[in-house]
Structure formats: structure tokens, C-alpha cells
Amino acid sequence: MKTLRRTPFTLVELICAMLVMMVVALVIATAASSFYNGYRRSVTATEKLKERMAIDRIWDTTIANMLPFKWNDENNSSRYVFSGKSDELLVTTLRRVYGNDPSALLFIRIKVEDEQLVAIYSDYPMLPWEEDEPSAVTKREVIAEDVANVSFQYADRDEDNELEWLEEWEEEEHANLPLAIRMTVEWRNGTREYWLRRTCGVSYNSTFGNRAAATSSQATRANNSTRAGTRNRGAR
Hints:
Number of strands: 11
Strand order of the largest sheet: 3-4-5-6-7
Helix content: 25-40%
Shape: elongated
Number of helices: 2
Order of helices and strands: HEEEEEEEEEEEH
Distance between the termini: 142 Å
Largest sheet: 5 strands, antiparallel
Structural class: alpha+beta
């Protein structure tokens, strides 16, 4: 009975086997790298989406429900609890009232601290003419990370009744609150994004066009209607 003798691998066969193993390892590494990069991009996109949704939520809550609210200062003068700076915003807004909430008013300050866009909430008025925040600050929320800068612009009408955007909102120069507020967020990577909302509590400007002109036109139509009725009664 003949026995089979084991033939050793030749050098060429070993090289071919090593090449095959290297190709398989390269394919696996490429697939793993692609999967990891895709997962990392997905996580980054999800985090960005969460931040944008948080900004939308805060901006809708803050601006769309903003209302004019006044408080007496140290000179007993009634002033708006509102501060419109180029890099900081303080507003009074409405909120849903739950069991432990003292009122339907909420005072919110939005600014950048340590490359974070933060919102500071208080049940008690945060007066713009006082530097210290009240002790009744209820919450401090980080809205977004990696923020290089935030800026605000405020819409008003000029002398020609045209819309203009202001970098600062001086209370002494305006009788009402801004018509709209635009926030520009500049991220650390250099990109910029904009949020624009119309404010609540400015019903004087809720009609299209010049209200004075509309009132004058209505008065003119009323006078014409009265004159026409008088002529008709005279003709009878």
C-alpha cells in the first residue's frame, strides 16, 4: 500500500496566498472604514439637526409669543422689559401655564457664552437696566455648541414708512417693539445661518400698507356715502 507524501508549499504558492489574504484584508478594512465614516457623518448630521430644531423651538417660543410688558425703573418710569442689543436679546413672552408656574409670563435672555448659544429663563422680570440677573432664574439651557458669534437685527419703519433693519433697539427712539427680529448664528467652521420671525404685540402694523392712509381712505368713503344718501333723500 502506497502512502501519500505531503508536498511542501512552494515559494510562489506562499506569495499568492499572502496576496489573497492582503486583498481580503484590504476589502474588509475599506468596508469598515466606509461604514465608520458613514456612521460618523450620520451622527454629525443628527446633532446638527437637533441643534437647528432647538433653535427653531426657542425662536418660535420667544419671538412669536413676545409681547410688550412694562416695569417701573428706579425713577418710577414705566419701561419695556425688552433689550435689543447687537449680540444679546432679552424679551418677555407668553407660555403655557402648568400647576407650579406663577404666571403666564416668561422672561428669556439669549446670548453666546463660551462658544455656546444659551437661553436663560426666569419667572421674575430680568430688567435690562439692571446688570445682575434675578435670583429666580429657573433654567439655563444650552441651545447649540460650537457657536462663534450671534447677532440680532430689529425691523422698524423709517420716516417714509419703509422697512429698515437696525443693529440696536433704543427704547427712547421707539414707541413700540420691533416688527420682526432676525438672528444670525455664525458657527466655528465659518458658516452662517439666519432665523427670522415676526413679533407679537404690534397690532398697529398688522395691516398692509399705511394705517393712516387706510384710515383717511375709510373716512373719505364714509363721507361720500353720507353725501350720496343726502342727495337721494333730497331727490325724493
